[in-house]
Write a structure and sequence with these properties.
Layout lengths: L1 H49 L1 E6 L6 H16 L5 E6 L4 H9 L7 E5 H9 L10 E6 L4 E7 L14 E3 L8 H10 L8 E3 L3 H9 L5 E6 L4 H9 L2 E4 L3 H10 L3 E6 L12 E6 L2 E6 L4 H13 L1 H7 L21 H9 L6
Parallel strand pairs: 1-2, 1-3, 6-7, 6-8
Antiparallel strand pairs: 3-12, 4-12, 5-8, 5-9, 5-11, 10-11
Helix pairs in contact: 2-10, 6-7, 9-11
Length: 348
């Protein structure tokens, strides 16, 4: 009897021990699976959080903003190696719309191209801007070279000759009046003296061709696609600025400065260099509240690979150590300043 009791005790002990080991192994396996699952989930979360879609506001078809904005988006998207970003260029009406899209609560843009003249008034809440717009500069780009284009047959040879004519003054709502207004005023001309037509650059070329307009303002980096298009289909000339008026504008505003276009830039139009003006450099802007790290990495990638922008448009040459940090009247974003200080080109 004692033998049977001892035997049963040993048997129960072995069963209990086996069950405990089995449970412990199952528990460990379960814990290992949970840990692996948690790790995979965290990896998925990290991949998802790193994926970002970043939009750059540009301008209208036919203008330099549209071409250069597309080049910037492509260059940053392909070369931002430490961030999982997809950068795209969005066609817009230009600077004024870009600023509004950047600063509104449900902002649809992270960066945008802008004319420095319009930004100058926007950040100060002057002109038609009711309040100070919270925008910041990221990088100064190419000069916005002002050209009043007219067919040779129009008979227009001076700014005063615009009076009584139909003149294309840019897309409605683009904000061209911020620099065209002062230019016209210094030449003794106002919008009331002619019939202003609002249209994009590519359409302006057609209006000149069918004589629906006698002249058109076409600004942008040199060469501007619309000017090349116009000169390829008809004989045109550039209306010169009065030297006294030009100097008065340069003295009055920080975004105006004299420019000379080499004859080689527009071979179908020029036989010698043409003196004109930068009416507000193209510059890259963002919201005042934009994340500093995002702006830093965007600026770094664009500047580092700036040579690739030149392949799309010669205006990319303006992304250099002297011009990129040029003050055109809008404060720079801390993220951009951080990069410029890092490479030693920022000056207080």
């Amino acid at each position: 009897m004692k033998f049977i009791t001892s035997y049963l005790s040993i048997l129960f002990f072995i069963i209990a021990l086996s069950f405990g080991i089995g449970c412990d192994n199952a528990s460990k396996q379960s814990d290992t699976k949970n840990e692996q699952g948690d790790t995979a989930a965290k990896t998925d979360d990290n991949n998802t959080s790193k994926r970002r879609f970043i939009s750059i506001g540009t301008g209208t078809l036919g203008g330099a903003f549209y071409t250069i904005g597309g080049a910037i988006a492509d260059v940053v998207s392909r070369n931002i190696t430490d961030k999982n970003w997809e950068v795209t260029a969005e066609g817009t009406k230009g600077t004024q719309e870009n600023i509004r899209l950047l600063v509104r609560k449900d902002a649809t843009l992270e960066f945008a191209l802008a004319n420095a003249a319009i930004s100058y008034f926007a950040v100060r809440g002057e002109g038609a801007w009711q309040t100070e717009q919270p925008i910041r500069a990221v990088m100064t780009l190419a000069p916005n070279v002002a050209l009043f284009v007219t067919p040779k047959s129009s008979g227009i040879r001076t700014m005063a000759d615009l009076k009584g004519k139909r003149v294309v003054v840019g897309p409605a709502g683009a904000g061209f009046e911020y620099f065209l207004g002062p230019i016209l005023a210094e030449h003794g001309v106002t919008y009331d003296d002619f019939t202003p037509l609002n249209d994009i650059y590519s359409a302006a070329v057609n209006l000149l061709a069918d004589r629906s307009a006698a002249a058109a303002f076409i600004g942008g980096a040199v060469p501007t696609p619309a000017v090349e298009q116009a000169s390829a289909t008809q004989d045109i000339l550039f209306i010169p600025f009065d030297e006294t008026a030009k100097q008065a504008l340069v003295d009055k505003y920080p975004f105006f400065n004299s420019m000379t276009i080499p004859a080689s830039a527009y071979k179908n139009v020029l036989t010698e260099p043409f003196d004109t003006m930068n009416v507000g450099s193209m510059h890259l802007i963002t919201s005042e509240n934009a994340d500093e790290d995002t702006v830093y990495h965007f600026t770094k990638t664009l500047y580092t690979h700036r040579a690739e922008v030149v392949k799309a448009h010669k205006a990319g040459k303006a992304i250099n150590e002297k011009n990129a940090v040029k003050d055109v009247g809008t404060p720079f974003h801390p993220g951009a300043i951080r990069f410029y200080k890092e490479i030693g080109i920022w000056s207080e």
